[in-house]
Amino acid sequence: MISGQPRTHTQVPVNIGTSVMGLRYKDGIMLAADTAVAYGSMKKTKHAQRMAAISSDTAIACSGEMSDFQELLKIFREKHDGDVIENDGALFLKPTDYFNYLSRVQYQRRMKGDPLWNGSIIGGVRQDSGDVFLGMVDLYGTKVEGNFLLTGLAAHYCQVLMQNSWRADLTEAEARAIIEDCMKVMFYRDKKASDEIQITTITKDQGVKIHDPYRIQGEWNFQFFHDKTNEFWRPIRIYNN
Amino acid sequence: MDLENYTNVNIFKKVYEKREVSSIHNVVEQPHHLLKDNTQHAKGGFNPYVNNQGTTVAIAGKDFVLVAADTRISQGFNILSRDYSRTTKLTDQCVITSGGMVADIETLHKLLIAKVKTYQRQFKKTPTVESLAQLLGNTLYGRRFMPYYAFNLLCGIDQNGQGSVYGYDAIGSWDKLTYGVQGSGSELGAPILDNQFVGHNYLVKTLPDDVSVVEDTGKDIINSIAERDIYTGDQVEIVIVDKNGIRVKREPIRRD
Amino acid sequence: MWMGSKEHYDRGVNTFSPEGRIYQIEYAIEAIKFGSTAIGIRTNEGVVLGVEKKLPSKLMEPAKSEKLVEIDRHCGCAMSGIVGDARILVDHARVEAQNHRFNYAEAMSIEQITEAVSDLAINFGEGYEGTKRKPMARPYGVALLIAGVDDNGPQLYQTDPSGTFLQWQARAIGSGGDTAMTYIKESYHSNMTLAEAEKLVMQTLKSVMEEKIQSDNVEISIVRTDTKRLETRTQEYVNNIISTLA
């Protein structure tokens, strides 16, 4: 720390979780992330959880710096516990409230020059009214809402895939299929992505349900991979002088 | 006077060309306790600003003021949202519309709403557009050293019932206008406005009186900007303020 | 505190008597009754403020605008009581009025100026822990007549040491206040002209003043509804009115 200057933490992300996704479907919200955490180009952990419930009806999934994700969870947990104590166990915060709160936290931290280096997707379904919410907050505090949201590289690779296949009346199986499709693309193209993915669903009936991580099947059975590279004919250019 | 030192160009030269580059050895030979921590990593530090782009246009009429803005927000070459409203109601007779950084814009708009409410409770009346114009200028200048990355147009009906537009830069320099444009398409929009309306540099500023004509022109301008500016598009949001209050409508424009 | 006698409830400004009174405030209100008379009258054409300037000695210079001062371009203030206390309140009101112009590019309403004065007036006592400025240790021993023109037209307000402020059509404060009020009540009517009001102020002052009314021991100011500007009347103007008085 430079003496005389305020303490800052992440000025550049180190342990990075790659893209997360979220989409609305018929019953509620589906959030998805893979379980890999990269340290530079090395996969430091291949079995990390990058999503969590922040209340009975709201969940969050984060890409970006994983220590900041843990800090974020701590902030939410402390707020949640504080609210429970203050209200004798009753909770009044809706998914949108957590979304707005996260946005203000992120904005305050960016004002300090000490950001929480995350792209977060918050999803929730209100248990009373059944209102479905899906929103995204970045490290500046920018708020975005949408029917499907993508952070990081997925915003480049999967935008069109999502756009073409998303409908308001997707079943859970269909939603899962879209997510797996997108995750497969990410696994093929994003070096920091892995094929072990995890899904959280939030529904009116069951609330937040964080499913166990599982592996998606990549297709590697191409002739290209069977044949040795050397046996391919490839033109060799010889440059004189 | 020494003209060499007078212009900004020469000041720039002095700072950047005559700067001595310290060698790494100078640093290493210092005692360890004088060494600064290395906070600048290879990728550089955190830049707290981001431009989410977008364009907004406002035109004052004889007894109305019209805002035409696009609804696209971007981050780099990515579109974050296609239906973001960059215009906020402050009073029944006044709206603010902004381009720039969305997080800052939302904070600024929220702060202004709070200030309007405080004003209403303290002074038992609704602030005039003129008052809000001054208030916004002070609010922006109050953050002179970490500005709101927001380029604003304050639009409303003044005490004489006339439409008025106030234009601002990010640090609170402001002026009363008859029309204005802010955001990523401002360079494309300004000359069209200059051509279609009387205002800038004219001694007698005649305000248009037909709201439907102005509405069509406003839509056309945003649509034309969307043709050339990649950060402008998706929808045009029209906000009309007149003595009856505020009306909002939207129309789709090109989404590419 | 030595208990058992209710006389002692007037020692501290933060202590209620068992009857529910704060004696120091009431004493401060009493202090106003020793002050010179100040009169304000509101008409549709504008507001008039008039004050008596006591000259205890012939050697004293008749200072201008000591008890009748400007708060802002559109607002004047007449006072009765401890003039030193009034200066603190007026200085505060002036700052508030200018702040309002700076923040909102408009004149502060007369009611708000009065409220700002009253806010300071009740802010006496020990103050809070950790606050920088210590407030006044006792109530301000002064009443103010605050007059001016704002969006709601001509306005006349009166403040007192308890932080209460009231709106009036016509009001007199100070040593001759009660007599003056009776006098004004007889002649005031809601559609009188500004000139009539000026004359009524002078006539009332003449009847309540111990000394003979002269152009150097009274002063009047007006704020017109049309111009919204505070104007101080010249000695010649005052002389002209005096010559017409009964």
TrEMBL record, chain A:
Cellular component GO terms held in the UniProt record: cytoplasm; nucleus; proteasome core complex, beta-subunit complex
Superkingdom as given in the UniProt entry: Eukaryota
UniProt-listed GO biological process terms: proteolysis involved in protein catabolic process
Cellular compartment(s): Cytoplasm; Nucleus
Keywords: Cytoplasm, Nucleus, Proteasome
InterPro entries noted in UniProt: Ntn_hydrolases_N, Proteasome_beta4, Proteasome_bsu_CS, Proteasome_sua/b, Proteasome_suB-type
Family under the similarity heading: Belongs to the peptidase T1B family.
Cited function: Non-catalytic component of the proteasome.
UniProt name for this protein: Proteasome subunit beta
Organism per entry: Stylonychia lemnae (Ciliate)
Gene: Contig13631.g680
TrEMBL record, chain B:
Transmembrane segments: none
Gene assigned in the entry: Contig13674.g684
Family matches, as InterPro entries: Ntn_hydrolases_N, Proteasome_bsu_CS, Proteasome_sua/b, Proteasome_suB-type
Keywords: Cytoplasm, Nucleus, Proteasome
Gene3D superfamilies reported for this sequence: Glutamine Phosphoribosylpyrophosphate, subunit 1, domain 1
Subcellular location: Cytoplasm; Nucleus
Predominant location: cytoplasm
Cellular component terms per the entry's GO annotation: cytoplasm; nucleus; proteasome core complex
Family membership noted in the UniProt record: Belongs to the peptidase T1B family.
The protein's assembly and partners: Component of the proteasome complex.
Protein name: Proteasome subunit beta
Keyword flag Cell membrane: no
GO biological process, one term: proteolysis involved in protein catabolic process
Function: Component of the proteasome, a multicatalytic proteinase complex which is characterized by its ability to cleave peptides with Arg, Phe, Tyr, Leu, and Glu adjacent to the leaving group at neutral or slightly basic pH. The proteasome has an ATP-dependent proteolytic activity.
KW Nucleus (keyword) present: yes
Pfam family, one: Proteasome
TrEMBL record, chain C:
Identification of the protein by name: Proteasome subunit alpha type
Family to which this protein belongs: Belongs to the peptidase T1A family.
Keyword terms: Cytoplasm, Nucleus, Proteasome
Compartments (UniProt record): Cytoplasm; Nucleus
Gene Ontology cellular-component terms listed: cytoplasm; nucleus; proteasome core complex, alpha-subunit complex
Domain of life: Eukaryota
Organism: Stylonychia lemnae (Ciliate)
Complexes and interactors: The 26S proteasome consists of a 20S proteasome core and two 19S regulatory subunits.
Taxonomic lineage of the native organism: Eukaryota, Sar, Alveolata, Ciliophora, Intramacronucleata
Gene3D superfamilies listed in its UniProt record: Glutamine Phosphoribosylpyrophosphate, subunit 1, domain 1
Biological process, per Gene Ontology: proteasome-mediated ubiquitin-dependent protein catabolic process
Residues making up the signal peptide according to the UniProt record: none
Domain Proteasome alpha-type subunits: residue ranges: 9-31
